[in-house]
Structure formats: structure tokens, C-alpha cells
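Please go through the protein record below and see whether the fold suits the sequence. Record follows.
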Amino acid sequence: MKEIGRRGFLGAVIGAFVASTTRLRGVPAAEAAVPAQVSAPTLSAFFADAAAAARIGAAYLAVAPAEGDADFLFTELAPVGAVPADYWATVTIDQLHLDIREAVHADFEAGEIVDIGGWQLAKTEARLAALSTLL
């Protein structure tokens, strides 16, 4: 795997730092499943450097292989109380940036941080990059 350079990392994460998300609780599994194509256009517009995001996503999945499922990540990245399929089908890029920014701040406050190639990322950022890798 190619090493993640500072410039590539910053290009990929700059968009992710601009947003928020928290875990979804209490939604039945049947409602939680989200087809991968629902948010592909929104996610492709989210990262300034898709190749760098893919490297970050792959690196995260290497340390968290249990999270290598798009439906799981769609559910984890949907805001609390939202039905993931509905959220991802209707979210705009502007709203996604807001939601991810809030989640990133919450992750850092809660200590939900992962080390990817020496960079400290909010778990939300890493998950979003991983999701973009899986689509």
C-alpha cells in the first residue's frame, strides 16, 4: 500500500473535518440496511482527493476489518434517530459536511480517535473514508 503523504492526507481529510455524525441506536436491522448506491454521488463529492481518501479508507479497514461492510458504515454514520436509508437518500453535500463536522468534534471530545499512518483521525473521518473505499 502506498504511504499516505501529508498533502494527500490533508486533501482527503479537509472535507471530512468539515462535518458530523453519531451512532444510530434503536433502529431495527430491516430499517438500517442501506443500499451502497444511495450515497455514492454525495460521497464522491465529499472528498477533495478521492485517491487519498481511498488510501485512508483502506488503511482504516486494515486495522478495523470488522467494519468492512458498507451497510454497517452507512448505519454508523447516519445521525442518531435517523433511518439510514432515508438519511443517505436525501442528504445534501452541505448537510453531510455539517453532520460530519459535528461528529468529528464529538469523536475528539470522547476520545474516539484512530491512528492511521501516524495521523490521529476521528473515528468518523476514518469510517467515512472507508465507506468511500467500499463504494
Remarks:
- The helical segments are 6-17, 29-32, 40-46, 50-63, 70-77, 84-90, 93-110, 123-134.
- The first strand starts at residue 113 and ends at 116.
- Residues 13-32 have pLDDT under 50 and may be disordered.
